[in-house]
Amino acid sequence: MRGRSDGGQKKRLIASLCAVAIFLGFLYVYYGSSSSGGADLGYGGKSLRKLGSSYLGGDDDTDGKQYESSTKFGQDEGEDIVPKTFPVCDDRHSELIPCLDRHLIYQMRLKLDLSVMEHYERHCPPPERRYNCLIPPPPGYKVPIKWPQSRDEVWKANIPHTHLAHEKSDQNWMVVQGEKIVFPGGGTHFHYGADKYIASIANMLNFSHNNLNNEGRIRTVLDVGCGVASFGAYLLSSDIIAMSLAPNDVHQNQIQFALERGIPAYLGVLGTKRLPYPSRSFELAHCSRCRIDWLQRDGILLLELDRLLRPGGYFAYSSPEAYAQDEEDLRIWREMSALVGRMCWRIAAKRNQTVIWQKPLTNDCYMEREPGTNPPLCRSDDDADAVWGVPMEACITPYSDHDQKAKGSGLAPWPARLTASPPRLADFGYSSEMFEKDMETWRHRVESYWNLLSPKIEDDTLRNLMDMKANLGSFAAALKSKNVWVMNVVPEDGPNTLKVIYDRGLIGTTHNWCEAFSTYPRTYDLLHAWTVFSDIEKKGCSAEDLLLEMDRILRPSGFVVIRDKQPVIDFVKKYLSALHWEAVATADSDNEGDDIVFVIQKKLWLTSESLRNSE
């Protein structure tokens, strides 16, 4: 009897537990479904990830409704503008570059080939892993030193990394002096100054007055493995602008130092993908002890430089292989010489530790090679200007019929080329009259922008500017008289007008604004967004993500100029308080349609933790 009684109790217990489980399941389904998309929603429909230990305007128990957003502009017309708040990222994220984040690579267990530098290429976080917090400045952050003084010194607190000063102490890269980091102008190959090294290259090429710009014929330069960009810094006085390129590698803050100094620079690597620049963009490429294996994968990296060089362009190479007499360096030199010979490059000059090769002016040499010679010519259907996410190819990019007939790029010398109608303008069906009208339109617009900014800026307030949708580059061209430089950004899915921008003697890159830009936080003084928000709405991307990204790359006290439709302006206004931005001015577009101009300034703020650390 006892056994039967125990069994009955067990059955009743099991039945009771099942009933409770069913009831709880019903509650979960009912309330869970009715509250989905509610308090836990993050921006852009993503889960809220609170990463900061120190917050401004929020805490861990804040009602999640403040993070709800819509990328559809104009939906809330007539409603009150409701301020929103964002958490502040933890201080350890003060130098976050979302698409070049090594921690993300480890967390996502990406299978990358380290031997070809895939781990230094762009790998952007999926939506559920994006940061929705404000990147804090480091403890003790100060408004950056102004140009041209910044070329030679920056605040140590702004980039609190001194390992390069110790590691490169014998090469004069940089020196710590009290609260500042000083840049004597040295480099791994040019310990005694980039200016003397640049003059020696010009002398090797027999350019008049040892001036590398060669009476305006050399204007755009690509410096790969640039270090802290002292080579590019000292080119500026010769009216040469360099795209200083380096990866986020063991010298991880080198590009951050370059931009803090006010020198054009970009985070990138010669790896597996094409660099984000069109063909025939640079008159000169430069590599000084850049530690690149140019012979790997059938010379694919040299062939990428070949794609980027203009007809008759130069590659200045300073490295032990150019002069050392040990067996390994001699082997590399022989193989490299054979490779560039098959690419139809010739030695323009060779002296001491530097060799300068020159690319041919026409296709004639390519046509005269023996059949089957490697590297081959690229396929006729290969678009040499398609670069966004496009793999490199180990082939030679032949010249267009225009370049073949012109026996060169046909560009006017600088500064005339800035306003001369570029030869590749015809690729887009634009006439010279349309080009001139575009220049005049943007001249008036930029003049209007500066009038709106004038109460807030002095002559030296702005240095690093970005045009987020550059079209033909006329925004940058209108700023020639200002002591600024402009990173011209061309959307990856629109007309590839970046080649026209380079033909004008300006620089820039291709980008997709649904993703983070390849730069450090706090690197630009002004962002110009002409219909950028309207464009990403059409692509279904989050405008809130874009605002957070703009805040990341904008320096404290920097400015944003938005030119877009009224619903976009209304949308952005909702976020000013949350982003610690303030409105400076609003203006109509002066009979140019229904665009509105909205000027904003980012405030300088520190987290409570940063304030404690700086004290």
TrEMBL record:
Broad class of the protein's primary localization: Golgi
InterPro entries linked to this entry: Put_SAM_MeTrfase, SAM-dependent_MTases_sf
Disordered: region residues: 57-76
Subcellular location: Golgi apparatus membrane; Membrane
Keywords from the UniProt entry: Glycoprotein, Golgi apparatus, Membrane, Methyltransferase, Signal-anchor, Transferase, Transmembrane, Transmembrane helix
UniProt GO molecular function: methyltransferase activity
Entry's Gene Ontology BP terms: methylation
GO cellular component, one term: endosome
Gene3D superfamilies reported for this sequence: Vaccinia Virus protein VP39
Bilayer topology: Single-pass type II membrane protein
Signal peptide feature range: none
Class of the enzyme per the UniProt entry, highest EC level: transferase
Ranges that cross the membrane: 12-31
EC number(s) recorded for this UniProt protein: 2.1.1.-
Highest taxon of source: Eukaryota
Membership in a protein family: Belongs to the methyltransferase superfamily.
UniProt-recorded name of the protein: Methyltransferase
